[in-house]
Amino acid sequence: MVPRGSSRSEKGQPAENYPPFYRTIPVTHSKPPRRRRSCLGKCLCWMACLIILQIVIVGILAAIIYFAFDPKLPKYSVDSMRITEFNLSDGDSLSATFDVNITARNPNKKIGIYYEGGSRLSVWYTGTRLCQGSLPKFYQGHRNTTLLNLSLTGQSQNANNLLSSLQAQQQTGSIPLTLRVKAPVRIKLGKLKLPKWKPLIRCRLVVDSLAANNAISIKSSSCKFRFRL
C-alpha cells in the first residue's frame, strides 16, 4: 500500500514526498506621483490667481477713475486750409506747403492734457504723403478749446503721375485728403500725471481744389481719435 500523496519507485520502495509546486507572480507597485509635477501645478495655479487678481485690481481702478473723473475723448476739427506752394520743380519733384487751422477741444471737467514734443502731422493723398509738420508743446486745461495754426511742408519725388491724378480729380471738384496726427500726450487726473502714450488722430477731408494761393473750400471733414500705446 502506498500512502496518499506518495509514489512508489521502480524498486518498490516508496519515493520521497515533495511539497506541491506553486507559481509565484511578482507584485508590481505603482510609482508615487512625482513631486516636480505637483510643484509645477502649484506654480501655474499661483500665476493664474495673480493674473486674475491684477485684472480685478485694474478693473476696480478703471471703474473708480470713470465714476470720479467722467473721462471723455478730446475732439478735433480741421477748420480751414490754405496752400501757398504746390508745383513741380527740378524735373518731377512736387513741392507743397499747406497752412492748416485745427481746433482741439478738451470737454473734460477734471482732466487736463499735456501735448509733449515729438509729434508728427502729415497730409496724404491716395497713399502719398504731400507734406508734414508737428504740433507745438502745450497744456490743455479743463473744458478748453485751443486753435492751432500749423504750417506743413513736403516734397514728393517722381510726381508726374501724382500731379496728373490730382489734376484729373480736381476736375470733379472733390479731392480726398487724409490728415494724420501722432502726438505723445500725458493725461493729468487731478494732481496725478499718467505715463506718456501716443494716440492716433485721423481726419478725412474732401476739398474742392489744391491750387496754390487760392481759397480752398473744405466740403466735408470728419476726425477720429484712436488709442495707441
From TrEMBL:
SUPFAM superfamilies: LEA14-like. Its main location: membrane. Keywords: Membrane, Transmembrane, Transmembrane helix. One of its GO terms (biological process) is defense response to other organism. Gene3D superfamilies: 2.60.40.1820. It comes from the Eukaryota. Pfam families: LEA_2. The chain crosses the membrane at residues 44-69. It is found in: Membrane. GO terms for cellular component: plasma membrane. Residues 102-191 form the Late embryogenesis abundant protein LEA-2 subgroup domain. The keyword Transmembrane applies. It is a single-pass membrane protein. This is Late embryogenesis abundant protein LEA-2 subgroup domain-containing protein. The lineage of its organism: Eukaryota, Viridiplantae, Streptophyta, Embryophyta, Tracheophyta.
